[in-house]
Amino acid sequence: MTDGKTDSWSSLAESVDQGHLTLERGTAQQCARHCTDFIAKLASMRDLARQLGEIKGFGTFPSGIALAEKFSKKAVGGDYSMVQALTDHIAEVEAMRDVFLRIEAQYVATDERGAQALAAIDPEVGG
After folding, report:
1. Measured at the alpha carbon of residue 55, what is the angle toward residues 54 and 61, in degrees to the nearest 5?
2. For residue 66, what are the contacts with CB-CB under 8 A and spacing of at least 6?
3. Where are the domains of the chain?
4. What is the per-residue pLDDT across 111-122, written as a single tens digit (0 to 9) for each?
5. CA–CA separation, 27 vs 58, rounded Å?
6. pLDDT score of 2 more than 50
7. What is the pLDDT of residues 56-82, one digit of tens each?
8. Which residues contact 47 (CB under 8 A, 6 or more apart)?
9. Does the pTM of the predicted model rise above 0.70?
């Protein structure tokens, strides 16, 4: 999308990397899983929308042909078609999912650093 929404998620990802954005343990992983599920649903809808690229049934009069063409373009290939809108939504949800995955990765990295620090002090506790 060109409206800056994905850029907002990039900014949030930077906040995660700087340690300014956190969620409770497991919450980010659940959010990422929901994003993955939603991406699959959006992709399925996009596949269905692609099938609407050739609308028929409006007859053979010029007005019917023009109407069929208009609706076909609304689905595929026209000005901000349904396929394009769904593609943009998928990109947005992928950016969201990436932020959630980064948050979860921060938890894992923090746990590993803590375990290594404990192991350096007392191998029985940290190992």
Report:
1. 115
2. none
3. 24-53+82-126
4. 788 888 878 887
5. 50
6. no
7. 889 999 999 999 999 899 999 999 999
8. none
9. yes
